[in-house]
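ESCALATION

Customer reports they have been waiting on this structure for their group meeting. Please prioritize. Original submission:
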Amino acid sequence: MRILIVEDEKSLAELISDRLKKEKYLVDISLDGEEGLYNALTDTYDLILLDIMLPKVDGLEILKEVKENNIKSKVIMLTAKSELEDKLLGFSKGANDYVAKPFHIDELVARVNAQLRIESVKDNNLEFGDLILDLKTSDIINKNNNDKINIINKEFQLLEYFMHNPNQVLSKEMIYDKVWGMENDSISNNLEAYLSFIRKKLKIINSNVKIRSLRNIGYKMEYENEGVK
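Update from on-call: job pushed to the front of the queue and completed.
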């Protein structure tokens, strides 16, 4: 699942991002309201963590635009303001939850999990071809023979991203942005290494799902059996 953090305190945004990535979420960061609004309206997120006091465009205006454009993302407001009136204003504009600063990071993660669990409780799997990715256990399963193996950390995040975008070409830049975010040191070597791990595990369970390298373009997840999606 994908989360957008719109927070102008860079150190706080990175702290939240790092913690959520440990929970196997894909995380993007916007450090001002203008960028946050653009990303919220042009990309697909399951949840937005939205500060109120932002440069360029404030959080309540972003929330208003998100709702007026029928964006389905859950929204949790992050703000130093904790007065009842401010909370009621956020809820009246469509916020799903409200966390006042300072907060404990574990509480925030619990709030995020609670909101996303509402949407995902009926479906804990992603499927493509003969492959199942169990979002709760991090197992990949061949549904034809029930062979399975566990994947971890970046392997999980990469495979989840590919399974949300099957049969689509994903550039290296897209993958870096969605899976690594600001963690950009030696990403190229890391990406190739993690894709190699995933391919080996797909082979172990005898899956016909392939992640193909397209020279100078990127990567594409395909299922080799014609006519099966």
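Sent to customer with the following note: The chain has a mean pLDDT of 85.
Escalation resolved.
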